[in-house]
Amino acid sequence: GLLCWFGVVKLGIAGLHVYMDDFYGWDFKRNLVFWESIRCPFEDAKQLDGARLKIIGFWVDAIKGSISLTSESIQALVSDINTFLSIPNRKPALSAWQHLTGSLNWPLNVLPWARPGLTEMYRKMSGKTHQHAGIPINGEVYRDLTWFTNMLQTAIGVRFVDAQTWDDSEADFVGWTDASNSGLAFVYAGSGLVYQLNPNPKPIVDIFFCELLAILCLLHHIASFSFPPRRVLVHSDSLNSVEVLNSLAPESSHNSILLAIADIILKTGIDLRVRHIPGKDNIRADLLFRLLFD
């Protein structure tokens, strides 16, 4: 930090930055001259330049404005998951659970939507304190880690240039979703789709699940476009859905649908924003219900 400060303030080196012990900037030649003048040791092989650089295991692409995992990092994480799942009796010690969750938290810096893939792991570890006590891998954890493995190899990373920095008025796509005991619907740009739940026998409906499902259906629909929109704004009258899509921390019964939403976002690069809209103002999606079901 002191070297960076001296280079910027005293020597006027423009655009010089430091993260931990990694220096970067666009006037790096003057920084190396400064280091040589004070005999600061450095390795020539580590003095990289270009529009695409590897920084602490991430590919940082200045042209695309994106950060993604390196192939080496992906292989290491997949290996860690496979080792964990292949432990005899499928009862890894608490320390092994903590080690793996620590490793898998690291890629969340560039894949924040992968967070639901760790929800069940943390739920299983909750309240456990004995480091060497075995914790059985249940079906939910196995499913989520399998999802995490597949996701790592297909996710496209995050665009740091404009991710979540746009105003609602700048959205490339705006949609409205709604759900009830009768069915679910989504509406956008004069178009709409609706799905009616089978009324006989009358189902026991988890309305929160249906609200999330309506959002998932809308995302699945627009992801099928030849050129999916990037900045997607969705209005929902389900405050619970808005909160869970902001926190990415659902109840156990809703984690699978959140994984499905995350999968679409991680594969397409859609920048999703969900806003709450009062039910009385959710006119478009509600009207579709009334026209088709009443």
Automatic annotation (TrEMBL):
Listed transmembrane segments: none
Keywords: Signal
Signal peptide per UniProt: 1-15
Entries under InterPro entries matching the protein: DNA/RNA_pol_sf (IPR043502), Hepadnavirus_pol/RT (IPR052055)
SUPFAM superfamilies: DNA/RNA polymerases (SSF56672)
UniProt protein name: RNase H type-1 domain-containing protein
Source organism (scientific name): Dendrothele bispora (strain CBS 962.96)
Highest classification ranks of the organism: Eukaryota, Fungi, Dikarya, Basidiomycota, Agaricomycotina
